[in-house]
Structure formats: structure tokens, C-alpha cells
Amino acid sequence: MNNMIFHRKLPIPKEIKEQFPATEEIKKIREERIAELESVFASKSDKLILVIGPCSADNEDAVLDYIYRLRGVQEKVSDRIIIVPRIYTNKPRTTGEGYKGMLHQPNPTESPDMLKGLIAIRKMHMRAISETGFGCADEMLYPENHRYLSDLLTYVAVGARSVEDQQHRLTASGLSIPVGMKNPTSGDITVMMNSIKAAQSAHTFYYRGWEVESLGNPYSHAILRGYVDKHGNSHPNYHYEDIYHLYEKYAASGLKNPGVVIDTNHSNSAKKYLEQPRIAKEVLHSARYSTEVRSILKGLMIESYILDGCQSISTHEEYGKSITDPCLGWDKTERLIYEIAELW
Question: Domains in the chain, start-ordered, CATH in brackets?
Fold first, then answer.
């Protein structure tokens, strides 16, 4: 018995890219932003990366409004900070229920339409680059879908639920942008380190109907996001001891470009989004205290939007308010970025 209904065949990435091509200006901006990030991960630049923005991109106008606000702040902290806006268009759902992102539902209050979704997320990423000059980030939730945005993104994260998956690791090894590998929800650092090694290595594997060969991604790195124990309780892994332990793991690993981005939300904050400023400052204090911690700390990941908190997807009435995890509002975000720049 077949329990899967095939509605329609979607365009392949090449067809979507030809229909909505990246301009020469977009290509130039993207290459410049990738070079900036690679310089940080290679320890040639001492700037701090901020991967910051909504938990999920749910409304193009609100997302672009938010990114325009970041643009003004970036100009004031450009000597110390590289801002990478989060435009997360695919969302993992622990139980499979809930909003799965704009790829699935370009309008969160309407039925899924993945053709409209593919077009909507590409247009939004194109607008963000061409109108603000930022290089942006997305989550690689579905490795086979990455190529729909592969010519636009400058940073990709592999989530805690995906980091043990072979296809995610092998796909990451073939990307030409920095890829952050989160620790799994269990908190097992060995799993994360193995995923980084896999992503930094060359492979031959099956991808979208092709036999492909990857060259390895030397800018694959760690993201610490906290973890959940066997009783379902959240535990942080952003403290000095956690980062120093990761430093020691890196030192014994032989991996290229040791680096970590600290996720200030998720299990590190137990999803108490107002804790993010405190967590960010503690991490920066650890970097000021220890040259070893400072040497591998490359960035922070912060969930932030225009309004504090979150709202129900069923209403989706408050402009710029998350419909997934709660986010830090704009006033607090702006203040935090300036404080981070002073501390770094």
C-alpha cells in the first residue's frame, strides 16, 4: 500500500536559478562576504561573527525591515563585528508538527505550496543581498534542497537533529561556504567533532541522482547550542569550562581552522530568550580571560526579531514577532550588538 501522494514534480534548482538568476552584483557581494567569513575562521581576522535574526523567516516584509535595521548597526561596528543575518526558511519540527518554514508555507496562515515556497525564499534571499549588501545564513535542513539557494548563501548551519546524518555531513564537505555543525541534542561533543571531520574530508557520494566528488570544507566548525538530558531537562554548554574543553578537543584532533560559534538560545538559554544578552556577555568574558578560548571563539548565534517573544501561528497578527521560538526584540538587540562590540 502506498501512503504517499505525489502532487506534482517541482522544478530542479537549475530551472529555478535560471528563472530567478543572481545578478553580477549579487555574485560580487556574496564572494566578498564569504571571504570575510573565511578570514575569521582562518584566524586572519580578529572580528567576531554575529549570526543573528529571526528563529524563522515568516514574512518577507518584516524580515527585510529587520535586516535594514541591522544594516545601520553594522556600519557602526564594522571594525569589530561581521553581521550575518539569519534567514531561516526551513524549520525542523521535533514531532513533525508546526510551521516548517517559508519553503513549505510562504504564507503561514495558508495551506502548504512548495512551488510558491521555492520562489518566495529565493526572492527573499536575493532581496536581502542586493538591497542591504549582507551575506546571509540559512539552515541546511534538507541537503537535497541546498542548491536552490547555493549561489546566494554565505553561511549554513547543520542543526542538532541533523548533525549525525551522513548525507548532511557529506553535502557539507562539498560546500564552498563556512558550515557550522551543531552539537546533537544529546550533547555528545564527540558526535559533533566527527561531523566536522567528515565535513572537512573529501568524499564520493550520491547527490540528487549524480555520483559526485567533494573536496572537503576546511571552514566547517562547531556550534555549541546546549543539550537535553534523558529526563528532558535543558543544560547549557557555553560556560568557560565547556569552551576550553572544546579547545582541547580541537588541539588533539588535527582539524583545520579550529572554531566555535556559541548559540545563545535553544538549550543554552532553555529557550528563555531574554537570557541571550547575559549568555553572550559571559562568553565574551571567557574570551577576555583565556587566550585559548579567544583563539577558537569565532562568533555568536542570536535569535532576534522586531518584537520580543513569539505568537501563535493561528493569529500571526503582530508584525515582526516570531511564530516559532521566542526572539529578542529590536531595541534589546541593537543595545546588545553595541555592547558586544565594546567587549570584543
Answer: 13-343 (3.20.20.70)
